Amino acid sequence: MSTPIRIDFVSDVSCPWCAIGLHSLETALKRLGDKVKADIHFQPFELNPAMAAEGQDITEHIQQKYGSTPAQQEQARSMIRQRGADVGFDFALGARKRIYNTFDAHRLIHWAGEQGRQSQLKHALLAAYFTNGENPSDREILVRIAGDVGLDQEAAAEVLASGNYAEEVREAERFYQRNGIHSVPAVIINERHLISGGQPPEAFEQALKQIIAMK
């Protein structure tokens, strides 16, 4: 008999560890098979809410924000590419050259949740940015990606043009920040148990087994 669990996956589409964490989580869920029935909700978190529309060169941005030298950044990217490959995600070499504002992407993800296609859109947005090097703040790109995953493109364009779901996204961001989420990915099980960071599948699998055993 499957144990139902709710998973709130708090993340940003411009966060490499979120892509790793999501694929690791999904790998763990596949390993658990019919032991669990997961209901995943993607929740918004902006790493750079004040980022300008044109974005910023990623090497410059990371150097300013974290003090990392270009050599240190390349070493980190190499590790991230390998971690991604280990769970089936492609961080294409040189694809991610700029960091962008992701608020519109989060609005579209919220809307996609109402259409039953949140997971498909989340995956497509991560691939668009990290694998294809596309701009997740470009509304034309967002509309095209929405259509690629089976969402109505005209409706997606209307959401983006109207400003719909802005307050819902802001309120969700405030909620998680008030509750101590200041870095992502943050994976919250049954609104009680927190798993932080882009953990390997084994860590998610072990944590989920422990949580199931407590039920």
State the separation between the terminal residues, measured CA to CA: 13 Å
Number of strands: 6
Q: What is the class in the CATH system?
A: Alpha Beta
Give the CATH superfamily.
Glutaredoxin
- Helix-strand topology string: EHEEHHEHHHHHEEH
The portion of residues assigned to helices is 40-55%
Give the CATH architecture: 3-Layer(aba) Sandwich
Given the helix and strand composition, which structural class is it? alpha+beta
Largest sheet: 4 strands, mixed
Summed up, the helix count is 9
Number of folding domains?
1
Beta-strand proportion: 5-15%
CATH topology: Glutaredoxin
Instruction: Quote the average pLDDT.
Output: 96
Which spans of ≥5 residues are poorly predicted at pLDDT below 50? none
- Rg computed from alpha carbons, rounded to a whole number of angstroms: 17 Å
Strand order of the largest sheet: 2-1-5-6
Name the shape in a single word: globular
Could you characterize the architecture of this molecule?
- With 215 residues, the protein is α+β, with helices and mostly antiparallel strands.
- It has one domain (3-214): Glutaredoxin (3-Layer(aba) Sandwich).
- Helix content is 53%, strand content 14%.
- It contains 9 helices and 6 strands; from the N terminus they run E-H-E-E-H-H-E-H-H-H-H-H-E-E-H.
- It has helices at residues 16-32, 58-66, 70-86, 103-114, 118-130, 139-148, 153-162, 166-178, 201-214; strands at 3-11, 36-44, 56-57, 98-99, 186-189, 193-196.
- The strands form 2 sheets. It has a 4-stranded mixed sheet with strand order 2-1-5-6. A two-stranded antiparallel sheet has the order 3-4.
- The chain is globular, with a radius of gyration of 17 Å.
